[in-house]
Amino acid sequence: MKSNKMERMKELVELLGKAAYAYEQEDREIMSNFEYDALYDELKALEEETGTILAGSVTQKVGYEVASSLPKVTHPKRMLSLDKTKEVSRLKSFLVNQEGLLSWKLDGLTIVCTYEEGKLVSAVTRGNGQVGEEITNNARTFKNLPLTIDTKERLVLRGEAIITYDDFNRINESLAEGEEKYKNPRNLCSGSVRQLNPAITAKRNVRLYAFTLVEGGPNFETKSEQMDYLAEIGFKVVEYKKVTADNIEETVAYFADQIGKQEFASDGLVLTYNNRPYSASLGETAKFPKDSIAFKWQDELVETTLLDIEWNTSRTGLINPVAIFEPVEIEGTTVERASVHNLSILEEMELGIGDKITVYKANMIIPQIAENFTRSNRIEIPAHCPVCGAQTEIKKEKETKTLICPNSNCKAQRLRAFVHFTTRDAMNIEGLSEATIEKFLERDYIEDFTSLYHLDQYEAQIIEMEGFGQKSYTKLINSIEKSKDVSPANFIYALGIAQVGLGTAKLICKHFENDLETMMNAKITELTAIDGVGPVIAEEFVAYFSLEANRKMVKTLADEELRIKVEQAAPISSDSKVAGKTFVITGDVHHFKNRKELQAKIEELGGKVTGSVSKNTDYLINNDSESSSSKNKKAKELGIPILTEEAFLALMEV
What is the CA radius of gyration of the chain? Predict the structure, then answer.
């Protein structure tokens, strides 16, 4: 019997270890919070029952293991995680006759900020509790964190870095076609805070909510006075309420009622004693402080029956499964559908029509499936996109399988496709914003790319549109007319073929001597023969032109609408050390405006740029030569020189 328990513990240690690593190191999830908590509790119970704790058990770890190129910092005092409960009665017994503070448990990244002489001098992540990552430059870009405060003494505080729901949605919507969406604000925040480039952090609108004063400030008797002091000197502090055993239940109910009204994600509450000397007298266990406890929302599980799986094609081409079930009441609202996220989760839960399932609201907001009792595994994966009918593809990335529609001309993807088509490196149509494209699509003024060149038939209607007039209309039509003069590579890039960037489009056009008909009929083997074009790109290229609707549209554009012109390349100096060399560019650039400008310079000098490092690569350009990125590792394995921009500029001048 004990051997069976030990085997189960080994399974749980391995499974939870993978889930924790994915969540904390790679900012992704391979299981729901509900499932993780249930397995964690099972492992903890088995450890207590058997008196054994296996190596690597997540019950003995605090936070993520540092695994990046950010500077490492050892905390003066180990930062512990909190013991947790889902029972309000436990909170009441925790308080006994003491006054406590009950506050939000924000779902972000814990940061330790240090001020000296009134200036922010250090910001460090919690890391594994003993060693964190130094992110001071990034913290200086946080939207609400004071860089200077009105006190000269040393002051140390802890806070939670978060990204609001509004900013999370804005950032996801701004991602380019084919880019993987961020799953939740916490993952996005973790990646943003730990960036090597503070400029990226600044764009993400990270905010910090202070939740405790560690050192400095007046010698207050209570933590609530410390919180008020932090607010007075300019910090945004987490909302808190004073509680006793008599009012803890109604205060928990207050926070529960506020969840849907908050701008941030919360996975529960934190209860700590208000009296500082009393808290200090309690000490700590090997993992938890004794003066605080976390309260996680008690998920209201409701049983229902799965009626259908609805497949929705998103603007990025992802076809997402959505569970439709018999309507149930959860947390005061009627719920009848929940996202299943991807194929991996669908398969793991072995869902089937008619299965008995339990559903809940994650963090009391987002409907999720908790468990499938029947596990009939009878869901048929659609072979064709529900919107355009194109043959679907299953892609696997970091052990997660997703279903996609490969047709960028799919109606569900048209807004994103049109936005891409009009960009500077594509058709370069000025005055056609995403909002305007969306209005044109809603009014059926545009159907595919060819219809852009016939907008003049809607002149009267467009002029009457809000934000338009005769002047704006004329400017737009002139810009569209100007776009007809386009190079073959820019045109191929404008089509939005998955994996085909401008650099790849240039390689393909050059190989096929800009013959569009030959390109449209190219075979995978012909494309992979091009240095810099791999099998994935080749498959995407062939798949695009295998759809008759795409072929017809491209031929119409080329034959009737556009004036595709081949520009004569400038003569390359025989002394060029760049000519004939293959480069890969990664990381941030400083001497050029962006990587595209650097790529253009390489191509101007007769070199070429590809997207991945291979044995055919001559140089990798990366200003951070010591980076642990996959491209750097591959270059070092193959013995390929890694150049900084300065080294590249020197190569140009040789």
Answer: 29
CATH topology of domain 582-653: Rossmann fold (3.40.50)
DSSP letter at 286?
A: S
**H-helix or E-strand spanning residue 155:** strand 155-162
Q: Under a CB-based contact definition with an 8 Å cutoff, are residues 336 and 324 in contact?
A: yes
Torsion sign across C-alpha atoms 207, 213, 217, 221: positive
**Type of residue found at 61:** K
Question: Is 133 buried (19+), middle (13-18) or exposed (0-12) by CB count in 10 A?
Answer: buried
Instruction: Provide mean pLDDT across the span 495-513.
Output: 87
605-619, pLDDT tens digit by residue?
888 888 778 888 999
Could you count the other beta carbons within 10 Å of the beta carbon of residue 424? 10
In CATH terms, the fold of domain 2-60 is Helix Hairpins (1.10.287)
Question: What Cα–Cα distance (Å) separates residue 90 from each residue in 87, 276, 378, 402?
Answer: 5, 21, 42, 41
Task: Quote the mean pLDDT of the chain.
Answer: 85
Buried-state track 341-365, b at ≥16 Cβ within 10 A, e below 16: bbbbbbeebebbeebebbbbbbbbe
CA 565 – CA 553 distance, rounded (Å): 19
- Which of 179-183, 281-285, 435-439, 509-513 has the weakest average pLDDT? 179-183
- 341-397 pLDDT per residue, tens: 889 889 989 999 999 999 987 766 678 898 999 999 999 999 999 888 889 999 887
Of 263 and 625, more confident: 263
Note whether 277 and 225 are within 8 A (CB): no
Strand partners, 563: 485
Distances (CA, A) of 252 to 237, 240, 243, 249, 637: 19, 11, 10, 5, 55
Q: What is the 3-state secondary structure (H, E, C) of 464-505?
A: HCCCCCHHHHHHHHHHHHHCCEECHHHHHHHCCCCCCCHHHH
Q: Catalytic residue numbers?
A: 105
Q: For the chain, what are the domain ranges?
A: 2-60, 72-295, 302-385, 411-564, 582-653
Q: How far apart are the first and last CA of the chain?
A: 74
Find, among 374, 371, 348, the residue nearest to 360 by Cα: 371
List the one residue out of 589, 97, 47 whose CA is nearest residue 287. Answer: 47
User: Which residue in 77, 88, 148 sits closest to 117, CA to CA?
Assistant: 148
Q: Report whether 145 contacts 120 (CB < 8 A).
A: yes
Residue type, 145: L
Superfamily of domain 72-295: DNA ligase/mRNA capping enzyme (3.30.470.30)
Domain range 411-564, CATH class: mainly alpha
| SS3 at position 207 | strand
Question: What is the pLDDT confidence band of residue 177, given thresholds at 50, 70 and 90?
Answer: very low
Distance CA 631, CA 629 (A): 5
Section 553-574 average pLDDT: 76
Considering the chain, what percentage of its residues have pLDDT values greater than 90? Answer: 37
Phi, psi of 402 (to 5 degrees): -130, 155
Helix, strand, or coil (residue 67): coil
For 387-407, give the DSSP string. Answer: TT-PBPEEEEETTEEEEE---
Give the list of residues 6+ apart from residue 483 with CB closer than 8 angstroms, or none. 427, 428, 429
Residue 13 has pLDDT above 70, yes or no: yes
Tell me what percent of the chain is helix, strand and coil, each rounded to the nearest 5.
40, 20, 40
| Sole residue written with tokens 């050892």 | 74
CATH class of the region 302-385: mainly beta
Amino acid at residue number 568: Q
